[in-house]
């Protein structure tokens, strides 16, 4: 009956291959200094001792403009806009471990609008800040569930809609990647719960002490239990079928 959290716990959080790009500015500057006097300008290719390379535009000896950069250490490859050796503007990052990002970057970090596909094939479209999903965005999970709404530092937080692959739909408030606050769940079995959620659990208020099954005395906010919202990814919602005994479905 307890509600467990979604595939976000298992997958698309930025891993090593989607984190901040390895610092290379010092190495690039040291290599460029050997021929900066010639003011390398236009198209060119730069090979580094560790096997990394850059091919593209130079401006007054600096890596600035359109180009392609490969990091030997991580195996990642970026194609797009650069400013002073850093990916900045619009581009495509392909990760050796799988997945890719296409969109806006600032100082090598995902910043602005973009599209991120992780190694498991889960897809996010929307806003990024400081390399994390932040703002408005939409994500499709590998099990077919789909979330659209607010994000805060890679977690679903604010208002959002989760459409489960089985047809169940939750719409309402989120906090820390869980249903939290006012929201409604339309279950695939036909039952609907509207009301308060706390830490992923549907809650009801008992205005006075009341006797619950098995002789438990309840008071205040209590879980709606049993209920059909258990045992699924995205935010648990249970199997499609009859509601648990004792759940009113209203």
From TrEMBL:
<dbReference type="Pfam" id="PF02493">
    <property type="entry name" value="MORN"/>
</dbReference>
<dbReference type="InterPro" id="IPR003409">
    <property type="entry name" value="MORN"/>
</dbReference>
<keyword id="KW-0677">Repeat</keyword>
<feature type="region of interest" description="Disordered">
    <location>
        <begin position="1"/>
        <end position="22"/>
    </location>
</feature>
<protein>
    <recommendedName>
        <fullName>MORN repeat containing 1</fullName>
    </recommendedName>
</protein>
């Amino acid at each position: 009956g307890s509600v467990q959290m979604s595939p976000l716990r298992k997958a698309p959080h930025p891993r090593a291959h989607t984190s901040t790009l390895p610092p290379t500015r010092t190495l690039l500057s040291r290599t460029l200094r050997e021929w900066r006097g010639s003011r390398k300008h236009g198209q060119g290719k730069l090979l580094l001792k560790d096997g990394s390379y850059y091919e593209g535009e130079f401006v007054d000896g600096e890596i600035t403009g359109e180009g392609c950069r490969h990091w030997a250490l991580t195996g990642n490859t970026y194609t797009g806009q650069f400013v002073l050796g850093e990916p900045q503007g619009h581009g495509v990052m392909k990760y050796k471990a799988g997945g890719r990002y296409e969109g806006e970057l600032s100082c090598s970090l995902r910043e602005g609008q973009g599209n991120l596909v992780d190694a498991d094939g889960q897809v996010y479209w929307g806003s990024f800040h400081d390399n994390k999903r932040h703002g408005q965005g939409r994500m499709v999970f590998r099990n077919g569930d789909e979330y659209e709404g607010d994000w805060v530092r890679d977690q679903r937080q604010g208002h959002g809609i989760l459409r489960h692959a089985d047809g169940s739909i939750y719409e309402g408030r989120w906090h820390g990647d869980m249903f939290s606050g006012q929201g409604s769940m339309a279950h695939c079995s036909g039952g609907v719960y509207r009301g308060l959620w706390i830490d992923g659990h549907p809650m009801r208020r008992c205005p006075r002490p009341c006797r619950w099954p098995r002789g438990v005395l309840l008071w205040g906010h209590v879980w709606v239990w049993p209920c059909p919202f258990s045992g699924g990814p995205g935010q648990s919602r249970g199997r499609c079928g009859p509601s648990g005994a004792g759940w009113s479905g209203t």
